[in-house]
């Protein structure tokens, strides 16, 4: 693979978790995945397991509380056994390819299954938080039904890095689920993140997450993440310039 399109996982510590569930939290519509996974990492006190680095990623520096940190991070914990994937920036198609290849080669041997979170613009306020599931195997489809998660009807596509990761898992026979959630088309949406945690992630992954602050601090969360939301909107505009977006498209 060309070096500029490759990525590598830099492990920082060892984890005790055996066959964890990977939960993806990359920026998408409403930043639902980003908000939900950040809440999960905080609530469960997950350890910083390692970073994914690549020259294909945006040449910017990310920081928090006065300290530089890597753009794409992996956290993990053993109670419950989960692994998370997060990014502070929107990834371009070349960066997405590099990331998905790294996930398959370096992380997939460690996790048991993957749960991807995809947002889609809600057409009405009443739709915000609606969740539908898409599975890669019969067993996972049954799990979705048993958890009370409606299956996505008809045809559609999962766009962007989430779609690439889900497709990569499908072709590599790695069990995966995509949870598609309707979200605010313009603003970071803590309400949609709260819904996908409570109605889908908790019954699937078997953990309990306190989502109270997502409701109480919604305005603060929206303000803090607006820059990332603008990045995502610009990326979507460039990708779909002159095209009408399919209402059954998730990202």
**Fourth-level CATH superfamily:** PAC-like subunit
Output the CATH class name: Alpha Beta
Order of strands across the main sheet: 1-3-6-7-2-8-12-9-10
User: Which class best fits the helix and strand makeup?
Assistant: alpha/beta
SS element count, helices: 7
CATH architecture: 3-Layer(aba) Sandwich
Termini gap: 26 Å
Order of helices and strands: EEHEEEEEHEEHEEHEHHHE
Number of strands: 13
How would you describe this structure to a colleague?
This protein is 37% helix and 25% strand. The chain has 7 helices and 13 strands. The radius of gyration is 17 Å and the shape is globular. The protein has a single domain, classed as Rossmann fold, CATH 3.40.50. The model is unreliable at 242-247 (pLDDT under 50). The strands form 3 sheets. A 9-stranded mixed β-sheet has the order 1-3-6-7-2-8-12-9-10, with helices on both faces. The longest helix is centred in the C-terminal third of the chain and has 22 residues, at 218-239. Helix 3 links the parallel strand 9 (131-135) and strand 10. The chain is an alpha/beta fold and 251 residues long.
């Amino acid at each position: 693979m060309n070096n500029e399109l490759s990525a590598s996982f830099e492990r920082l510590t060892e984890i005790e978790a055996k066959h964890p569930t990977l939960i993806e939290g990359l920026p998408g519509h409403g930043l639902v995945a980003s908000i939900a996974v950040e809440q999960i990492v905080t609530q469960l006190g997950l350890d910083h397991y390692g970073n994914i680095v690549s020259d294909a990623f945006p040449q910017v520096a990310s920081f928090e509380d006065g300290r530089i940190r890597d753009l794409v991070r992996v956290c993990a914990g053993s109670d419950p056994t989960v692994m998370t994937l997060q990014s502070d920036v929107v990834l371009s198609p070349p960066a997405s390819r590099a990331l998905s290849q790294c996930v398959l080669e370096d992380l997939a041997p460690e996790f048991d299954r993957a749960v991807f979170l995809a947002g889609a613009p809600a057409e009405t306020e009443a739709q915000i938080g609606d969740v539908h599931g898409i599975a890669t195997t019969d067993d996972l489809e049954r799990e979705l039904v048993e958890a009370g998660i409606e299956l996505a009807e008809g045809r559609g596509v999962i766009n962007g890095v989430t779609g690439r990761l889900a497709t990569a898992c499908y072709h590599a026979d790695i069990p995966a689920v995509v949870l598609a959630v309707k979200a605010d088309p313009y603003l970071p949406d803590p309400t949609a993140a709260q819904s996908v945690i409570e109605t889908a992630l908790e019954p699937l992954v078997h953990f309990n997450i306190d989502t109270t602050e997502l409701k109480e601090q919604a305005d603060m969360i929206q303000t803090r993440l607006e820059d990332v939301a603008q990045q995502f909107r610009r990326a979507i505009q460039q990708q779909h310039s002159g095209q009408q977006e399919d209402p059954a498209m998730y990202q």
